[in-house]
Automatic annotation (TrEMBL), chains A, B:
Listed name of the protein: DNA-binding transcriptional ArsR family regulator
Database matches in Pfam families: HTH_20
Lineage, opening ranks: Bacteria, Bacillati, Actinomycetota, Actinomycetes, Propionibacteriales
Superkingdom, taxonomy of origin: Bacteria
GO MF annotation, one: DNA binding
Amino acid sequence: MSVAEDQLDRAFAALGDPVRRAMIARLSRGPATVNELAEPFPITKQAVSRHIQVLEAAGLITRTRDGQRRPCHLVPAALEALTSWIDEYRLETERRFRRLDAVLQSVKEQEQ
Amino acid sequence: MSVAEDQLDRAFAALGDPVRRAMIARLSRGPATVNELAEPFPITKQAVSRHIQVLEAAGLITRTRDGQRRPCHLVPAALEALTSWIDEYRLETERRFRRLDAVLQSVKEQEQ
DNA sequence: CCTATATTCAACACATCGGTTGATCAAGGG
DNA sequence: CCCTTGATCAACCGATGTGTTGAATATAGG
């Protein structure tokens, strides 16, 4: 399996967890540290730290250093890669539906 | 957790598997039965049947009946819900980046 | 009717995931 | 220096996911 496919695996799977989706939502408003990301959730910092590692491995976030802190930053290009993948197949399906509608319409007109 | 959130969980997690993504790609070109979807993969029909159940539970496909066969159909609206979710946060992040760029630019101009 | 085909159900094995606790590492601040 | 704070590592546990095999169900078709 290609590297790109592997990243899609990780990225989609990462978004399959509500805690990680909430972190993405938070990060869209600006960088945040582990502690800041942990605040809304009733789980340990260690668990949050691992969620962050999952998001990083998926390429959805990057991390910088600020003293002791390791702020997380969203990577919009990674999100864009996901929407591109989805849209390719969604748009193809919608085109197919439109073609089918056109056929049904012409059949209907024939019958009249 | 809301029903909608739950569907996002299932849908993103469903796309986290390469077999299921390949099935989505196949279904974008038209309906297919379990046997047809199973053909490209070196796994049993039972395993394929369960992948299909996962996609159906996620709302990504629906199934009809054609005699013994149970053709699968892609649901473009479900895919659209995923891109909407992603785009909300991607676009917010990009707007934030542009604001930051503007600030940096004005600082640079001040210095000159 | 009887048999073949399409699909699913049930039970099991094994890996991965998401959480915990406890220890450890690294950077800052008195 | 020492102690606090931020973050991670390691080991463990229960739940879930993905595959298998074998049996069951349902429809088609001679």
